């Protein structure tokens, strides 16, 4: 199976099936997709996703982005608006107190995942992941570039499913392959009247320290990743067991 799905009109669309876990299982294919902007999908691409079994589309973009580059309505998937921004909670304060910002993206990621509003967005994401429990049905989550807001979502779900940190990092860094044509990325994603931080993130390459800083901050404030899932996202051991049953084989 292909990891990168080159569907016309999609940016950074990737299959998450096939990744191994520490328990010896793997993520099911045709169950979970991550992506950037999908507003320009062609009829052929939409038909591919229909056959793939796509039922849920989780959109992490801001309301402005969703209005400017709206996901296409279809008769086979439902769109769930789940904006990560604007942050309104305590994430930046905690991140600054932690004092271990190793990169620009790492600083942003720490703020989002420690922030009450950011956590609200990813809690809804996990709730929808748990809803996606029927065979031959799949979920796609996306933002604009498919790197930052989507990247954080992928980090969370892959780690929750038991994928090791090295594999999670490798998946995250795959995003850099799409940055060969930065002019196209800038033209497609950047909004002159939009959020400057989002624009800057879209044009910043993924880096290794962003991942390590996220894991460090979560461990510092929550003790363990499992405690973060429970306390911040409402995923207790029972729900985590169900999540693994849905996505692993």
From TrEMBL:
Gene3D superfamilies: Protein tyrosine phosphatase superfamily. GO terms for molecular function: phosphoprotein phosphatase activity. Pfam families: Y_phosphatase3 (PF13350). It comes from the Bacteria. Belongs to the protein-tyrosine phosphatase family. This is Protein tyrosine phosphatase. It comes from Companilactobacillus tucceti DSM 20183.
């Amino acid at each position: 199976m292909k990891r990168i799905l080159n569907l016309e009109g999609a940016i950074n669309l990737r299959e998450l099936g096939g990744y191994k876990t520490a328990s010896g299982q793997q993520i099911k294919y045709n169950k979970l997709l991550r992506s950037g902007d999908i507003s320009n999908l062609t009829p052929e691409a939409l038909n591919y996703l229909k056959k793939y079994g796509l039922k849920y589309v989780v959109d992490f973009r801001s309301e402005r982005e969703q209005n400017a580059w709206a996901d296409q309505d279809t008769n086979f998937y439902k769109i769930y608006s789940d904006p990560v921004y604007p942050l309104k909670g305590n994430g930046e304060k905690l991140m600054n107190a932690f004092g271990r910002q190793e990169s620009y993206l790492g600083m942003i990621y720490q703020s989002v995942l420690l922030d009450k509003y950011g956590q609200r967005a990813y809690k809804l994401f996990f709730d929808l992941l748990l809803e996606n429990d029927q065979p031959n049905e799949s979920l796609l989550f996306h933002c604009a570039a498919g790197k930052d807001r989507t990247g954080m979502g992928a980090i969370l779900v892959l780690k929750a499913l038991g994928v090791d940190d090295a594999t999670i990092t490798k998946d995250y860094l795959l995003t850099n392959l799409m940055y060969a044509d930065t002019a196209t990325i800038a033209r497609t994603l950047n909004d002159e009247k939009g959020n400057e931080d989002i624009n800057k993130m879209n044009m910043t390459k993924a880096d290794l320290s962003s991942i390590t800083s996220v894991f460090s901050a979560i461990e510092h404030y929550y003790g363990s990743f499992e405690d973060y899932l429970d306390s911040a996202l409402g995923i207790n051991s029972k729900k985590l067991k169900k999540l693994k049953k849905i996505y692993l084989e």
